[in-house]
């Protein structure tokens, strides 16, 4: 039997935490890109386009992330792609994030006064220019706090990918726990590492909120 | 690709799915009641309690909000026995869900308490009500009315999050799905069906909560 010292445990957990960070970043960036597309559909003038986007958002916000990950994991092979925990995890979290980010940004677009659109139109801008130059920059800027807040939620959500076999922080901690039988210490450390990642972001989101409220 | 969808197994699986859904509903009912109660105590303590209590509640909220639910669940189920607290899977799940939900709803309830004008308390005290009566009869009902929509969302988020407790072998909806797919080898179809059950549950729960809120708290609740 191999002896694990405290430092062995911590070192292995920190090494595994890199994958948590990487997955969070990949899902945030991917979710941002797909979320933009969903946002375009969600605020389009066409009624059906808006309905489809609302349905997409309701679907992802109304079902457990764990189920979405399972469907990715077992559904991708049916499309002829190889089962790989990383792909399923990254894609699953990307779609999950896209629905939430689209909804957050949509609330920003809705919060802008109608006059912003009218002013854009009166300057002779067409729809895409209005969005790019006037609407979206303002919508992003007023939704910065909830966007950072969602990033915290996304980082915590990566823990679920351990269940479909992605080797991140929680999965590694399960393995270490099985070898050391010290669940109190191991899961306590895992919680601490997640806290160290999330708490600064939570504080940042809070300061953004305060700044927005002060304006 | 020679893979077609097959739902032939579904006829023999409705019992298991219904049992799982019933356990999920039980979990969320207990969590909602215990979590709301705990968060009312927590929010009141954070506003009017002694300094030490305020600190403890503050730390509790931050720790729960900045760590994953799955890790909290594992800590409670696998970690606590090593200091002599051994819990059934279902009790561990209820405890973890309640503690997790309370961390979010303490802030929600707190915001509601702040939204009630100070004059309400003063008027009630002037009428000779005791401080506890003022809180329970005057401030709290008004606060709950303000925060009801946020509370509803949190309950639904918690219901969806409860899928995770299948990992400590609580026989709820996701656990039954895991068992079914192991038996039928129809993983995608099984999870598809169960995902739809979750969707129906969450939509139904939202409707029920909105209707119940209108009834109990009066009109204007959405």
From TrEMBL, chain A:
Keyword presence, Transport: yes
Domain ABC transmembrane type-1 span(s) in chain numbering: 17-205
Subcellular location field: Cell inner membrane; Cell membrane
Pfam families from the UniProt entry: BPD_transp_1 (PF00528)
UniProt membrane topology term: Multi-pass membrane protein
Gene3D superfamilies, per database record: MetI-like (1.10.3720.10)
Segments traversing the membrane: 20-41, 53-74, 86-105, 186-205
MF terms in GO: transmembrane transporter activity
Alphabetically ordered keywords of this record: Cell membrane, Membrane, Transmembrane, Transmembrane helix, Transport
One term under GO cellular component: ATP-binding cassette (ABC) transporter complex
GO biological process terms, semicolon-separated: amino acid transport
Similarity field: Belongs to the binding-protein-dependent transport system permease family. HisMQ subfamily.
Record-given protein name: Amino acid ABC transporter permease
Natural source organism: Mesorhizobium helmanticense
UniProtKB/TrEMBL annotation, chain B:
Pfam families: BPD_transp_1 (PF00528)
Alphabetized GO MF terms: transmembrane transporter activity
Membrane spanning residue stretches: 20-45, 66-84, 90-113, 190-209
Membrane topology summary: Multi-pass membrane protein
GO biological-process terms attached to the record: amino acid transport
Keywords: Cell membrane, Membrane, Transmembrane, Transmembrane helix, Transport
Domain of life, source organism: Bacteria
Localization, UniProt: Cell inner membrane; Cell membrane
Family annotation (CDD domains): TM_PBP2
Homology family: Belongs to the binding-protein-dependent transport system permease family. HisMQ subfamily.
Protein name: ABC transporter permease
Species of the source: Mesorhizobium helmanticense
């Amino acid at each position: 039997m191999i002896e694990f010292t405290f430092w062995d445990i911590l070192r292995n957990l920190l090494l595994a935490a890199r994958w948590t960070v990487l997955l969070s970043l990949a899902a945030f960036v991917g979710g941002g890109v797909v979320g933009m597309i969903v946002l375009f559909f969600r605020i389009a003038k066409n009624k059906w386009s808006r309905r489809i986007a609302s349905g997409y958002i309701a679907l992802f916000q109304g079902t457990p992330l764990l189920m979405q990950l399972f469907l990715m994991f077992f559904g991708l092979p049916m499309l002829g792609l190889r089962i790989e925990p990383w792909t399923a995890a990254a894609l699953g979290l990307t779609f999950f994030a896209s629905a939430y980010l689209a909804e957050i940004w949509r609330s920003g677009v809705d919060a802008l006064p109608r006059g912003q659109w009218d002013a854009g139109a009166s300057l002779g801008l067409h729809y895409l220019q209005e969005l790019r130059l006037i609407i979206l920059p303002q919508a992003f800027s007023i939704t910065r706090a909830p966007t950072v807040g969602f990033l915290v939620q996304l980082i915590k959500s990566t823990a679920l990918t351990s269940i479909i076999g992605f080797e991140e922080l929680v999965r590694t901690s399960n393995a270490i726990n099985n070898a050391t039988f010290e669940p109190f210490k191991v899961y306590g450390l895992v919680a601490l590492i997640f806290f160290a990642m999330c708490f600064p972001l939570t504080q940042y989101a809070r300061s953004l909120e305060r700044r927005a409220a002060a304006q | 690709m020679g893979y077609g969808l097959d739902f032939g197994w579904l006829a023999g699986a409705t019992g298991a799915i219904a049992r799982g859904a019933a356990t999920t509903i039980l979990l969320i009912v207990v969590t909602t009641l215990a979590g709301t109660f705990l968060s009312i105590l927590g929010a009141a303590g954070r506003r009017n309690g002694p300094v030490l209590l305020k600190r403890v509640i503050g730390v509790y909220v931050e720790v729960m909000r900045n760590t994953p639910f799955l890790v909290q669940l594992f800590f409670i189920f696998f970690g606590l026995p090593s200091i002599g607290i051994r819990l059934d899977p279902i009790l561990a799940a209820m405890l973890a869900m309640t503690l997790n939900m309370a961390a979010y709803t303490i802030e929600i309830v707190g915001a509601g308490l702040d939204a009630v004008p100070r004059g309400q308390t003063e008027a009630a005290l002037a009428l000779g009500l005791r401080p506890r009566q003022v809180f329970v009869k005057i401030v709290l009902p008004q606060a709950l009315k303000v925060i009801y929509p946020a509370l509803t969302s949190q309950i639904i988020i918690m219901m969806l999050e409860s899928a995770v407790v299948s990992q400590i072998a609580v026989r709820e909806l996701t656990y039954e799905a895991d068992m079914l797919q192991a038996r039928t080898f129809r993983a995608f179809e099984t999870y598809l069906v169960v995902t739809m059950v979750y969707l129906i549950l969450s939509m139904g729960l939202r409707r029920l909560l909105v209707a119940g809120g209108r009834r109990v708290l009066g009109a204007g609740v959405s």
